[in-house]
Design a protein that fits this description.
Layout (H helix, E strand, L loop, with lengths): L3 H11 L3 E4 L7 H6 L1 H21 L4 E5 L28 H21 L3 E6 L1 E3 L12 H16 L3 H10 L11 H10 L2 E2 L2 E5 L5 E2 L1 E3 H14 L18 E3 L5 E2 H12 L4 E5 L8 E2 L4 H6 L7 H12 L3 H11 E6 L29 H8 L9 E5 L4 H7 L8 E3 L6 H15 L4 E6 L7 H18 L2 E3 L8 E2 L2 E6 L2 E4 L2 E4 L6
Parallel strand pairs: 1-2, 2-3, 3-9, 4-8, 6-11, 7-12, 13-14, 13-16, 14-15, 16-17
Antiparallel strand pairs: 5-6, 7-10, 18-19, 19-20, 20-21
């Protein structure tokens, strides 16, 4: 989005009729205070590129996502749309606010001058599926969930889950493999310790929160049913503030929110507030009258939302293993002829079926073993060539015979993956699916499992199909390192013609 040429190329190729501009450089109070130049520069660039190309390519309708945090610090509560630019902005997020206001006004101005149909909306604080739990850049609610979870683990001396959490989401470069002292130091810097959790401010500010999927629902509703002419009263002479607030119209204090999260996590330690840290704006509540008049209302209140969101922020080994074992299906692609490994590999017996590492097991056998504890044996699927099906049956007797699929198109990955996923979803509509090549054994085992574990959780949260294709530039085998240039391979420094030397 920051690359104007790339954005233009995208519009040239795709020719979209409708655009939802949700991309933005975002973060919490700490990030906004620290990276002020980034927040104004990057957001202005994103908006300029996308809105500009939308206009040049004749986009029929555009939805621009602003934020209620760009309303003035002392705006009358609850905030109506016409409160914009009526008093000073909150200092901590002033650069971000100025950028987003510029985008909002850009949409409004294009409409008034050129008759376009660009609508701006002002979402309140969002939370929910695929939340950002990065402590360096997350918003208040997901940050509190993760902080309280980690404090609970420290309080219970549960280092297995702490290291698992940091493996999945490192903090300032500290991961699960870091020394205990380093982990404790970085967590303490974020107010997380065995004794309790320290949160910024007094806990008294009031905030409104909207479940992210309801934000998506409201956006679709507006795109389908609302035009620019519907955003202001007929006969208005000075047309401004045509944006639409999207929220619940309900609020909760930061302290009450923290105690709500404490209840859901089962944390028994202390929660303290540091009044020397900034509170931010004391109250931010949207007036959603315009949205209600247009025909949309929220359904999920904060109590229900936190109950659903807490599991998203908790990396718990036991919970995730129990969940993924039965809900995860693994697709192993094993139809290739193994040309990268010639002459050790041949078309008659490609690399996935031979003992490349010298351990007495083939690559495909080792690949299956790596999923132990992450997936039950009945959830393993193999996609291979018809000529290799019998080899697969012999080497993998634990795999159900009907899970050994013949590739519909020889050595064409995309339709093979599609076919396998269709077969799985037909019988297991809610399955998480991870796709991996059969020769992924050439990478470090721990790294492989870490990547897979992260992919499984992301798949679960997004309900997407995750394809993992791991192929190092120099695969290490029991015979040394292999490099490839055209039809030549190099083993132990000696170049050989791969077509002449197959033994």
């Amino acid at each position: 989005m920051l690359d104007g040429v790339a954005v233009k190329d995208f519009f040239d190729q795709e020719r979209p009729e409708y655009v939802i501009l949700a991309a933005a450089h975002v973060g919490g109070i700490m990030a906004n205070s620290t990276y002020r130049a980034d927040f104004i520069y990057k957001n202005l660039q994103i908006q300029q590129n996308v809105i500009g190309e939308s206009f040049r390519h004749g986009v029929k309708k555009l939805l621009f996502l602003g934020s209620t945090c760009i309303y003035p610090r002392d705006a009358q509560q609850p905030m109506k749309e016409d409160a914009l630019l009526t008093s000073p902005l909150e200092y901590t997020n002033e650069p971000y606010a100025i950028a987003k206001i510029a985008g909002l006004k850009m949409c409004e101005s294009f409409n008034l001058q050129y008759g376009t149909n660009y609508i701006a909306v002002m979402p309140t604080n969002l939370y929910g599926p695929n939340d950002n739990f990065d402590l360096e850049r997350s918003h208040v609610l997901p940050a509190m969930i993760r902080k309280i979870h980690l404090a609970k683990c420290l309080n219970e001396d549960n280092w297995e889950n702490i290291r698992y959490d940091l493996d999945m989401r490192p903090v300032e470069g500290i991961n699960g493999e870091s020394r205990t002292e380093e982990i404790l130091a970085v967590l303490k810097s974020y107010g997380i310790s065995k004794d309790g959790v320290e949160l910024w401010g007094t806990g008294t500010p009031l905030r409104e929160f909207l479940w992210s999927e309801e934000m998506a629902d409201a956006s679709v509703f507006i795109m389908e049913h609302v035009d620019f002419k519907d955003t202001y009263r007929p006969g208005t002479k000075e047309i401004r503030n045509c944006h639409i607030n999207i929220g619940t119209g309900k609020e909760i204090s930061i302290a009450d929110l923290a105690h709500l999260i404490v209840k859901e996590t089962g944390y028994t330690g202390s929660i303290t507030f540091n009044p020397e840290k900034p509170d931010g704006t004391m109250r931010k509540l949207t007036d959603v009258t315009k949205l209600h008049e247009l025909g949309w209302h929220h359904k999920i209140d904060i109590e229900e939302g936190v109950q659903q969101d807490v599991p998203n922020g908790i990396w718990n080994i036991k919970r995730n293993k129990e969940h993924t074992c039965y809900g995860t299906h693994i697709v192993i692609m094993a139809g290739g002829i193994g040309s990268r490994f010639w002459p050790m590999s041949t078309p008659e017996c490609p690399k996935q079926f031979i003992d490349v590492t010298g351990c007495g097991k083939s690559l495909i056998q080792l690949t299956v073993e790596r999923f132990q504890g992450l997936c039950i044996p009945d959830n393993i699927w193999i996609v291979t060539s018809d000529k290799y099906k019998e080899t697969v049956r012999k080497q993998l007797p634990s795999v159900p015979p009907h899970h050994i699929l013949t590739e519909p198109v020889a050595r064409n990955t995309a339709p093979c993956i599609t076919y396998a996923c269709w077969k799985i979803k037909k019988h297991h509509p809610h399955a998480n699916i991870v796709v991996t090549p059969a020769d992924a054994l050439v990478i470090n085992t721990d790294e492989f499992r870490r990547v897979i574990a992260k992919a499984l959780l992301m798949t679960d949260q997004s309900k997407a199909i995750v394809t993992i294709g791991i192929r190092p530039c120099r695969p290490e085998t029991g015979y040394g390192y292999i490099a490839r240039e055209k039809r030549w391979i190099r083993i132990y420094g000696k170049w050989m013609n791969s077509k002449r030397n197959r033994t």
